[in-house]
Amino acid sequence: MQQNNSNSASRVWCTVPVYNNRESVRDIVAECRSLLENVVVVDDGSTDADLVALLSGIDVNILRHEKNLGKGSAILTASRYIEEHGGAYMITIDADGQHRPADMKKFIPHLDDKAPGIIIGSRNFDTENVPGKSRFGRKFANFWLHVETGVHIDDCQSGFRAYPVKYLNRMKFRGSHYDFEAEVLARAVWAGLSLKTVNIDVVYPEPEKRVSSFRPFLDNLRISHTHAMLVGSRLIPFRHRRLVERPKSDFRMLRHPGRFLMMLLKENATPAGLAMSAAVGIFLAVLPLMFLHTFIILYVASRLNLNKIVAVNVQHLCMPPFVPALCIEIGFFMRNGQWLTDISYETVFAQFSDRLLEWFLGSLIIAPVGAVLIAVITYFSAALIKRQVATDG
Prior knowledge:
The chain contains 15 helices and seven strands. The chain is of the alpha/beta class. Helix 1 links the parallel strand 1 (12-18) and strand 2. The longest helix is centred in the C-terminal third of the chain and has 41 residues, at 352-392.
């Protein structure tokens, strides 16, 4: 473990956020305390037990929120407390028994003051009772993290993580529940921190024995809102505040056009990545952006780490006259309740302001429909090709 302070025991702390985990929390906390000298338990408004009494006899620090503020808030409360008391790193572990505290030892060698970052425990899903929604959620979260940052990791939904508290406490977040765990990774990358993973085991009990404070509708809505907010922030052409400076980009690849082209072709070339690239290209190509389509598509694809070649070239499917004329027809119908039966030089160019408005209105229908359609076609085509290549190989 690379550190500037030889007193490493006081620098690495463990945090256990707790909300109504009466059955499992004492065993988890006791094992964590046997591994690390400093453990913080954050009672996030639990109503099922008095944690002070439940954890009596275990030498840990207990902090309490009088009402449930969310897992993200509990983690940040602990992070501030740890920095105030001289800690440098915080390993967070869930209190529901899903993670094995012994795996904390895998994180410690990767904690490095010279290359600060967040370490995420990548869960081994080759085990019993893994819910299908967890497998899907993992892929969904990994995809959006790559769109937002260009970074791919195996499991960005895992709550078993190690944070450098100095940097965590200097970032601002909007999410305070499970959405925090999605937001913090994107903002950490934007701030210059690295993301690393270590392999960990995971324990999923039988469905009837599971206890979870995750509320599927509300928390999934929060997470979706967070990703939408992060994508919107990414599209703004301003540099995010850096806490750690990274090496400047190396443009030597431009000296080798062949290698540069291969890099572009391989960029986000998963079926989901190609589908997203094609969808963005079609969506923007349908809009009446007036000779700026290629520039805007390139900008958006670059900011969202999409495949630029796919995004730019798919726009040719929307070249005039068919798609603009279709948008105008739909827009005219939306304004007048009838179809435009005479499309000519006079009705289009002499009345261009009217047609432009109708083109825009029609594009609001055609753009999302076309984007979804091309995304589905691209995804299944790419998946089929990938499967065929793997079979032939």
